[in-house]
Amino acid sequence: MKYYIFYRESDNFDDILKDISIKKFVSERIRWSNYLQIGISQYKKDAEKIFSYITLKYGDDIRTNLTKDYTPKPYVDYTPIRK
User: Domain-by-domain residue ranges, the chain?
Assistant: First the structure.
């Protein structure tokens, strides 16, 4: 199963959900505040084509990181020791 997470300020994902090309491949669909997650089985026929289609058509709305990066930044969060 391959998952795609979309984010929009308007919280309107009707164009994605009603897209005829995508609709027949979607196995899971989860919506929450300004986000949509869809799951597509990798084992269906023409699955690779639909992955490319989604990336090209809706690539601006795709999110990969849902959490903030909390890694420490040198010279901001700590001072590196010089030897």
Answer: 2-63
Looking at domain 2-63, its CATH architecture is 2-Layer Sandwich (3.30)
Q: How far apart are CA 29 and CA 47, in angstroms?
A: 17
For residue 81, what are its two tokens? 């020791």
13-60 confidence digits (pLDDT tens): 999 999 999 998 999 999 999 999 999 988 888 888 999 999 999 999
How far apart are alpha carbons 12 and 2 in whole angstroms? 22
Measured distance CA(11)–CA(32) in Å, rounded = 9
pLDDT tens for residues 58-74?
Answer: 999 999 888 888 899 99
Q: Whole-structure pTM over 0.90, yes or no?
A: no
The two structure tokens encoding residue 20: 């005829």
Place of tokens 């700590």: 78
Helix (H) or strand (E) holding 32: strand 26-32
